[in-house]
From TrEMBL:
Modified residues (N6-(pyridoxal phosphate)lysine): 38
Residue ranges occupied by any Alanine racemase N-terminal domain in the UniProt entry: 15-221
Keyword field contains Transmembrane helix: no
Source species of the chain: Stakelama saccharophila
UniProt-recorded name of the protein: Pyridoxal phosphate homeostasis protein
Job description of the protein: Pyridoxal 5'-phosphate (PLP)-binding protein, which is involved in PLP homeostasis.
Pfam family, one: Ala_racemase_N
Family: Belongs to the pyridoxal phosphate-binding protein YggS/PROSC family.
Length: 222
């Protein structure tokens, strides 16, 4: 993508976020734009960095480990978010590489991350991913198991800052966003990671603190 395209797309997304926030009586700077760069190479990411974006999301540990160390050397103040499923045996790598993990969703991963954080002496913030539409094929903690999982995470000092969801495809997402917001409130959590390219404005009006936007910034993934 050309640099001016990146600048325009980034400006348009930031503007849409600000407008949605104001509609909901929220401050625009209460919403963090996570630019999801999965499947895009360093040459596609650099124009977005040059346009001023510093917060990026990846969904696979290995892909991120291949791309980001070099980009980070060029631009040290990057913050990297893991938005995809995390296998327990990659917990060490994830803790070393990422600043925020959005996909904590099961007791075995609570244990693996706690151990990895103790060893690394580094504690990335975590979102608990909720399987908000109760879909069999999707990651995320079932709603009925959320309280227990949060309790387990607290008992090993995982820094859980909020909840994350990916609503079912092709249906109106607003009720799912509203439900996630209610669950977060009920559990005293302030962070809400919700909203992607197709629905991030809706998510912002319903309280998203982090929107994960890929296609709208980088174009289609091939
Ligand atoms: C790919 C991905 C995104 C970004 O999706 P777009 O529709 O391209 O904006 C957001 N969240 C997660 C978990 C993803 O895997």
């Amino acid at each position: 993508m050309r640099s001016d395209d990146s600048e325009q797309r980034l400006a348009a997304a930031r503007d849409a976020i600000a407008r949605a926030a104001r509609r909901a009586d929220r401050r625009p700077d209460a919403v963090e734009l996570v630019a999801v760069s999965k499947m895009h190479d360093a040459d596609t990411i650099r124009p977005v960095l040059r346009a001023g974006q510093r917060v990026f999301g990846e969904n696979r540990v290995q892909e991120a480990a291949a791309k980001w160390p070099q980009l980070r050397e060029e631009t040290p103040d990057i913050r990297l978010h893991l938005v995809g499923r995390l296998q327990s045996n990659k917990a060490d790598d994830a803790v070393a590489l990422f600043d925020v993990i959005h996909s904590l969703d099961r007791p075995s991963l609570v244990k693996a991350l706690a151990k990895a954080m103790d060893v690394a002496g580094r504690r990335p913030s975590c979102f608990v991913q909720v399987n908000i539409g109760a879909e069999a094929q999707k990651g995320g903690c079932p709603i009925g198991e959320l309280s227990d999982l949060l309790e387990q995470a607290r008992s090993v000092d995982l820094p859980v800052i909020g909840l994350m969801c990916v609503p079912p495809l092709d249906v109106e997402p607003a009720p799912y966003f509203a439900l996630l917001a209610k669950l977060a409130r009920d559990h005293g959590l302030g962070g809400l990671s919700m909203g992607m390219s197709g629905d991030y404005e809706t998510a912002v009006t319903l309280g998203a603190t982090h929107v994960r936007v890929g296609t709208a910034l980088f174009g289609a993934r091939t």
